[in-house]
Amino acid sequence: MDLDLRHHRHAIALSEHRHFQRAAKSLGISQPALSRSIQELERRAGATLFARTSDGAEPTDVGRIYLAKARAVLAQAGELAREMQLIRGLEVGELRFGAGVYPSEMFVAKAMARMACAHPAVKLTAVSNSIDTLIQLLKRREIDFVIGDQKTAELERGLCVTPLAWHKGYLVVRRGHPLLSAADLKLRDALRYPLTLTTRVPPDMLSNFLQGKGTRRGAAASVPSITCDSPGMMKTVVAESNAIGLMPMSLVARELAEGTLAALPIEAPWLGRTFAIVELENRTLTPSAEQFLQFVREADAAAATAPSTSPSPTASPTPTPSPRRRSR
């Protein structure tokens, strides 16, 4: 059976959209062209791969078997293209990677700016999402690497996890917040107010928050009570309400200096976080990817040492990042 990658891409698009017109639009071709391509594919395969209905098209049993193999072929073709680029050592091409909500704004954007200046021919595509979603994209080889929470990544098999720097977290509130005048402030006092965090709170951190609130994990406690995946939105919510936000110094240094936000004097070392570079085991990165990750390490180190401009609790010791290692 003589097939090319174009047939595979067309069939996969049709299986995903279940409709010729929508699939054709996603591929950037006309509907008649897609219909002819699928007909030719079925002629060469000697079998009906899609059952046509009034609502669109559904893969047949044979079609589902074919689609599974076609996806594998396309993945292998993509790997071959990456390896050839690696062999040539080209400073061109595309980097498609994932970054968590916090690292995206803390240091990844700065690394992207440096890469754009140093290697403008390399196309950068950043996918920002929860660490769980990004790891699934990585395993499907839809992205080259992930920059996200270290502890979460180390729970997964088949990944190479390289820790970055330690970032101390601060509980911040608006200027004039009632907690700023409280004596002997404890975490449980702060958690009487709404807490704003990302939509995906790492399990260990969530457990500590619940213990601080005096609530067992799994009970009907609203921690956090405000969730969003934008540090900018979080800061606005905190600045204009009695909500409390968890932020690293690199994201709130300006607001602390201006006095619009203030850091609560609460000692809680577990509020900090270490992010990591997460890759698939035994997958070699291109020279352009290695260069970008060097910019990421440098930007991360700078963000971790952002000077405090507001009274804050005594910083916990900064762990030295361990060498690259693989999870279990």
Give the strand line-up of the largest sheet.
Answer: 4-3-5-12-6-13
Put simply, the count of helices is 12
Proportion of residues in β-strands: 15-25%
The tally of structural domains comes to 3
CATH-assigned fold name of the largest domain: D-Maltodextrin-Binding Protein, domain 2
**At CATH's second level, what is the architecture of the largest domain?**
3-Layer(aba) Sandwich
Oligomer: single chain
Give the overall form. elongated
Helical content, roughly?
Answer: 40-55%
CATH superfamily of the largest domain: Periplasmic binding protein-like II
Poorly predicted ranges: 216-221, 310-323
Which sheet architecture does the biggest sheet show?
6 strands, mixed
Distance between the termini: 42 Å
The residue-averaged pLDDT reads 84
> What is the helix/strand order?
HHHEEHEHEHEHEEHEHEHEHEEHE
E-strand count: 13
CATH class of the largest domain: Alpha Beta
Structural class of the helices, strands and pairings? alpha/beta
Nearest-angstrom radius of gyration?
A: 24 Å
Give your account of this protein's structure.
- The chain has helices spanning 5-17, 20-27, 31-45, 61-88, 101-118, 131-139, 150-153, 187-190, 203-213, 231-239, 249-258, 287-304; strands spanning 50-53, 56-59, 93-99, 122-128, 146-149, 159-167, 169-174, 195-197, 226-227, 244-248, 261-263, 273-280, 325-326.
- Residues 216-221 and 310-323 have low confidence and may be disordered.
- It has 328 residues and is an alpha/beta fold.
- 45% of the residues lie in helices and 20% in strands.
- It has three domains: 5-86, Winged helix-like DNA-binding domain superfamily/Winged helix DNA-binding domain (Arc Repressor Mutant, subunit A, Orthogonal Bundle); 91-167 and 273-326, 3-Layer(aba) Sandwich (D-Maltodextrin-Binding Protein, domain 2), CATH 3.40.190.10; 169-271, Periplasmic binding protein-like II (D-Maltodextrin-Binding Protein, domain 2), CATH 3.40.190.
- The chain is elongated and about 80 Å long.
- Helix 2 (20-27) crosses helix 3 (31-45).
